[in-house]
Amino acid sequence: MSVKFGILTLLSLKRHHGYELKIELDSILWSKGKINPGQIYTTLDRLMRDELVSSPEIDDQDRKLFTIEPKGEEELTSWLLEPVAYQSTKDDFFFKWSCARKVQFSQEKQMLTQQKTLIVKEVMELTKQKTDLLFSGEERKYLLVTGALLHLEADLNWLNQVMNKL
User: Fold this and answer.
1) What is the DSSP string of 41-70?
2) Contact call for residues 67 and 56 (beta carbons, < 8 A)
3) Rounded distance, CA 69 to CA 49, Å?
4) Burial 40-64 (b: 16+ CB within 10 A, else e)
């Protein structure tokens, strides 16, 4: 997750002060966590240094208002158009499992079963969230949860294949 591009996204819509950016980013991140306010201001300083944003005004409460510059719009567009590679082989569990195989870990089946249990629990929690989001009309979040569920389903299928080969 890139705070830089989250900020550029929000500033492409309208001017914001720092705290507004934090609140909006937390909303975009939703289930991924919260942003540290210090990270917002550090990133804004770098964006200003790189001439991607500017702060030509202050609001009625003496807070700097930030706006995106044309160079920032160009960088945001480039980032949005750049495809994101799927990182399954760099996943933490895949690495852990590879290490277990390397050392012929005697509790490999237990390790796989525990991972499967965790994934099933996540599937159940996300399925409930998905239902709630469907009824509340929050389409963006509904689609994100649907995508996460599809990834978890693929992970479960892979785990089942591995476990069947033991």
Assistant:
1) HHHHHHHHHTTSEEEEEE-TTSPEEEEE-H
2) yes
3) 12
4) beebbeebeeeebbbbeeeeeeeeb
Element (H, E) at 150: helix 139-165
Identify the bridge partners of residue 58 per DSSP, sorted by sequence position.
Answer: 64
Lowest mean pLDDT segment, chosen from 23-37, 66-80, 91-105, 111-125:
23-37
Alpha-helix runs per DSSP H in 3-137: 3-13, 18-29, 37-49, 70-81, 92-102, 108-136
Q: Report d(CA 71, CA 77) in Å as an integer.
A: 10
Average of per-residue pLDDT values in the chain: 89
> For the whole prediction, is pTM greater than 0.85?
no
pLDDT at 37: 86
**pLDDT (average), residues 63-71:** 94
Q: Which residues pair with 57 in a beta bridge?
A: 65
Distance, CA of 163 to chain centre: 30
Reference 17, options 72, 65, 85; nearest CA is: 65
Could you tell me the two tokens for 127?
A: 């399925």
